[in-house]
Design brief:
The protein contains 16 helices and 37 strands. The protein is an alpha+beta fold and 695 residues long. The longest helix is centred in the last third of the chain and has 20 residues.
Length: 695
C-alpha cells in the first residue's frame, strides 16, 4: 500500500545510550500491530538490534527502520544508536525525519549525548520532543526530569502525558490531550484504557490548561480566541498544536515505561494526529552554480530523491535507503542519477519492519523506503526524473577522530581485506579507508575505537581474515630556517651523447603554510629556457624527501640563479638530476628542522571532568584556546594539540570521562619540533626505512 504525502509521518527516536530507545521502538511496533509479540534487548530478537554484532554486544550499532499504520497514517519510525561512535546513522535519520523524540531516563535525567543531539537538532531547526522512560523504576521522577530539561535546554516542555505514580507505585499514564487514563496490563499485554483516578484530576486539569495555552500560541487567531473566550474547541486545539510543533514553538513531553507497554498508545496517537507531515518541511539542494537553497517536499513536482544510507544484507543483497523529496518514485522505472551523471534503473521497492522487507509499487514525496540491488546507487546520490541542475546537499557528517593502521597478517589476504573495508566505508560514511602514500600505510578511521573494532571483528569473523593493527605513523614535514645556496654539476660521459647540466640554487624560508615557490632568476642565457622546467622538476623531486628524516619539504623558496649547459650533452633530464642534488645540498646547509602537524581539538565533557581533561591536554603539549559552558553541565574546551599526541585520544578521553566525553578534531598547521622529540622522530623514521628494505 502506498501513502500520499499528507498521510506520512517520519519520526526518529534518539538519545543517550541505555535510555531505552530500542525497547520503545519494539513496543511501539507491538502497540501499532506491526509485531505480534515484543521482544527484549537481552533476548537478541528485537527488530531494532538484529545484526550479529548488536545481538552480541546488546547495543544499537545501526539505524533501524520500521513503519506502523495508525488510523490510516503511515508512521515511519527510526531507532538509532546511543553511542557517539555511531553518530552517522543518527544524523541520516534526522535528515529523513520531520520529528525527533529524545529519550531521557526517568532516573538519570538529561545526559551528555542528549545535549549533543539537542544541539544538532537546534542547528536543523527540527521539531522535537522528549519521552521520559523507565518511570516504573526506583528513583524515577517525571517532574524532576522536566525541571532538568527546562534548566539545561532553556525550554518549557509541555506534558502530553502524565505518570500515575512513580517507581514500584507506577500504574500507567494519563493522556492529557484525550483526557484518558491508560493502565499497565499486569499480564504483559498492551495498556488498558480506564477512568482518570480522582487523585490525579487536579494535575491533569493543570496540564491540560498548559496544553491549551501551547496550542493557542501556534496561531494568532487561536490566541485571540483563547484570550476572549478562555478556552478552545477540540479541533482548535489540534490545529494549534500541529502548527506550533511544526514551527518549533512547543516541545512536547511524554511519560511511560516501554518495557511495561505503558505510555505507548498516547504517544502513537500524538504521532498520527499531531506530529509534522513531510509537506511542512523542506530539504537543502545545491544548484548548478553551487549555491545552497531550500526546496519544499512536494508530491506535485517531478521526481527527486536522496539516497540516505547503503547496507548489504546476506540474503537481500545491496539495499539503498531513499527519502523521496518531490514527486513519486515508482518500481521498475527509469530515473536519472544526477550524482553519477547517468540513467538509473529502479528495480523493486520495499518498505520494511527492520530486516523484514515488504514489496510496494511506489513511494510518494516524503516517504522513506528501500531500492534493492542497484549496482550504482550510493549514499548521498541524488535521483531525479530527468537530468537535473541541482543535487541534494550531502549528509553533514562529522570527521572521523580515531585512526588505526591495518594490514592482513597474510599478504595474500590484502586485496580481500581492502574490498571489505571499501564496503564498510560505503555503508557508513563516518568510516574512512585509504592508503597513505606518505607513510606507506593503509589507515582506517572512524568516530571511535568501538566503531573501528566492530568493523574489524566483523571482517575477521565473516571473512576469516586475520588483521594486524598498529598506531598510524604521523606525516611530518621538513623545512629550513635560514638561507643557503649550493652548486651541483651533473656530468656523465657515455659512448655517444653524454649528460651535462650545472645549476646554482639559492633557497630561503617562506612563511608557514606558503609551501613552495620557484623563481627563475637566470639572466644572459646561462641555462636555456627549455631546460628550466627540468630544473623545477628536480627541485620538486628533491623536496619530496628531506635530508633529516625523509619527510617532504615545505615552505621553501627556490631560486635558480646561474648554471651552465653543453650544446650537445645537455638535456632536461641532466638539469633535473643536477637541480635535485643541488637542492639537497643547499638544504643541508640551511639549518633544516622538523615540522609536526598540529590539530584543532574541541572536547565536550561534563563539568565534573573539566580539570582532569585540561590537565591531560597540558601533558600532551596542548595549548588551551578557550572554554565555554554549553548548559546542561556540559563544557566545551577548545585547544590545539600535536597530532602525535592525539592518536589514541578517543581511548584516553573515554578513560578520563567514564565514556561520556567526545571530541572533534581537524588539522590546523605545522609547527617546528626539536630536541628529544625530533630525535625520536628521526630514529623512528630510520627504523621504518630499514624495515621496508628488509621486506
Amino acid at each position: 500500500m502506498s501513502y500520499t504525502t499528507d498521510l506520512i509521518k517520519n519520526v526518529t527516536i534518539a538519545g543517550h545510550g541505555g535510555t531505552g530507545k530500542t525497547t520503545l521502538f519494539e513496543r511501539l511496533l507491538f502497540a501499532g500491530n506491526a509485531l505480534p509479540k515484543p521482544e527484549t534487548v537481552e533476548s537478541g530478537k528485537t527488530v531494532g538490534d538484529s545484526s550479529p554484532e548488536e545481538i552480541e554486544r546488546k547495543i544499537s550499532i545501526h539505524a533501524a527502520l520500521a513503519h506502523i499504520d495508525r488510523n490510516g497514517k503511515k508512521i515511519n519510525i527510526f531507532d538509532t544508536p546511543g553511542s557517539s561512535d555511531f553518530i552517522g546513522d543518527v544524523i541520516l535519520t534526522f535528515r529523513a525525519s520531520e520529528f525527533a523524540v529524545l529519550t531521557v531516563d526517568g532516573r538519570s535525567g538529561v545526559q551528555i549525548e542528549t545535549v549533543k543531539l539537542w544541539r544538532n537538532l537546534e542547528g536543523r531547526k527540527k521539531p522535537r520532543g522528549f519521552y521520559i522512560t523507565k518511570l516504573d523504576e526506583e528513583r524515577a521522577d517525571f517532574n524532576k526530569v522536566l525541571i532538568d530539561i527546562k534548566e539545561k535546554f532553556k525550554v518549557d516542555p509541555v506534558p502530553l502525558s502524565l505518570p500515575m505514580g512513580a517507581g514500584p507505585a507506577f500504574t500507567g499514564v494519563i493522556d492529557v490531550l484525550h483526557e484518558k487514563a491508560w493502565f499497565i496490563d499486569q499480564g504483559g499485554g498492551l495498556e488498558k484504557e480506564g477512568a482518570i483516578p480522582a487523585e490525579f484530576k487536579e494535575a491533569v486539569a493543570a496540564a491540560r490548561e498548559r496544553l491549551i495555552e501551547a496550542a493557542a500560541e501556534g496561531d494568532d487567531n487561536l490566541m485571540e480566541h483563547y484570550i476572549n473566550k478562555g478556552a478552545l474547541e477540540a479541533e482548535e486545539i489540534y490545529k494549534g498544536l500541529i502548527e506550533a510543533l511544526a514551527d518549533h514553538k512547543i516541545i512536547p513531553a511524554f511519560a511511560g515505561s516501554a518495557l511495561k507497554n505503558s505510555g505507548l498508545v498516547p504517544f502513537l496517537d500524538f504521532l498520527a494526529e499531531v506530529s509534522p507531515t513531510p509537506n511542512t518541511a523542506k530539504d537543502l539542494v545545491l544548484d548548478g552554480e553551487g549555491n545552497q537553497k531550500e526546496i519544499p517536499i512536494d508530491s506535485d513536482k517531478p521526481l527527486s530523491a536522496l539516497v540516505i544510507k547503503t547496507t548489504y544484507d546476506q540474503f537481500s543483497g545491496k539495499l539503498s535507503w531513499i527519502k523521496v523529496i518531490t514527486g513519486k518514485l515508482a518500481a521498475e522505472s527509469e530515473a536519472y542519477n544526477v550524482s553519477e551523471n547517468k540513467k538509473e534503473r529502479i528495480g523493486k521497492l520495499y518498505t520494511c519492519v527492520g530486516k523484514k522487507l515488504e514489496e510496494v509499487k511506489e513511494f510518494f514525496a516524503g516517504d522513506v523506503g528501500i531500492v534493492s540491488k542497484s549496482p550504482t546507487l550510493r549514499t548521498n546520490d541524488t535521483i531525479s526524473a530527468v537530468d537535473s541542475a541541482f543535487k541534494f546537499l550531502s549528509l553533514r557528517l562529522p570527521e572521523p577522530v580515531h585512526s588505526v593502521a591495518v594490514n592482513a597478517a597474510a599478504k595474500k589476504d590484502d586485496d580481500k581485506l581492502g574490498e571489505f573495508l571499501v564496503r564498510a566505508a560505503d555503508e557508513d560514511h563516518t568510516f574512512r579507508y585509504q592508503f597513505n602514500v606518505e607513510t606507506k600505510e593503509t589507515v582506517i578511521s572512524g568516530m571511535g575505537e568501538l566503531q573501528v573494532n566492530i568493523i574489524l571483528d566483523k571482517i575477521k569473523q565473516n571473512q576469516k581474515i586475520e588483521v594486524e593493527t598498529h598506531i598510524p605513523r604521523v606525516a611530518y614535514r621538513e623545512t629550513i630556517t635560514k638561507k643557503s645556496n649550493a652548486e651541483y654539476t651533473h656530468k656523465k660521459q657515455t659512448g655517444g651523447h653524454g649528460q651535462y647540466g650545472k645549476v646554482l640554487l639559492e633557497i630561503a624560508p617562506l612563511k608557514r603554510g606558503e609551501n613552495y615557490q620557484f623563481v627563475n632568476a637566470i639572466f644572459g642565457g646561462s641555462i636555456p629556457k627549455n631546460y628550466i622546467p627540468g630544473v623545477e622538476k628536480g627541485v620538486v623531486e628533491g623536496m619530496a624527501a628531506g635530508t633529516m628524516a625523509g619527510y617532504p619539504v615545505v615552505d621553501v623558496e627556490v631560486k635558480i640563479v646561474d648554471g651552465k649547459y653543453h650544446p650537445v650533452d645537455s638535456s632536461e633530464l641532466a638539469f633535473k638530476l643536477a637541480a635535485r642534488n643541488a637542492f639537497r645540498e643547499a638544504m643541508r646547509q640551511a639549518a633544516p628542522t622538523l615540522l609536526e602537524p598540529v590539530n584543532n581539538l574541541t572536547v565536550f565533557v561534563e563539568d565534573k571532568y573539566l580539570g582532569d581533561v585540561m590537565s591531560d591536554l597540558s601533558s600532551k603539549r596542548g595549548k588551551i584556546l578557550g572554554q565555554d559552558s554549553l548548559g546542561g553541565g556540559i563544557e566545551e574546551i577548545r585547544a590545539q594539540v600535536p597530532l602525535a599526541e592525539l592518536l589514541r585520544y578517543s581511548i584516553d578521553l573515554r578513560s578520563i570521562t567514564s565514556g561520556t566525553g567526545s571530541f572533534s578534531v581537524g588539522f590546523d598547521h605545522y609547527a617546528p619540533i626539536s630536541g628529544r622529540i625530533a630525535e625520536d622522530v628521526i630514529k623512528a623514521s630510520e627504523a621504518f626505512r630499514v624495515k621496508e628494505e628488509e621486506e
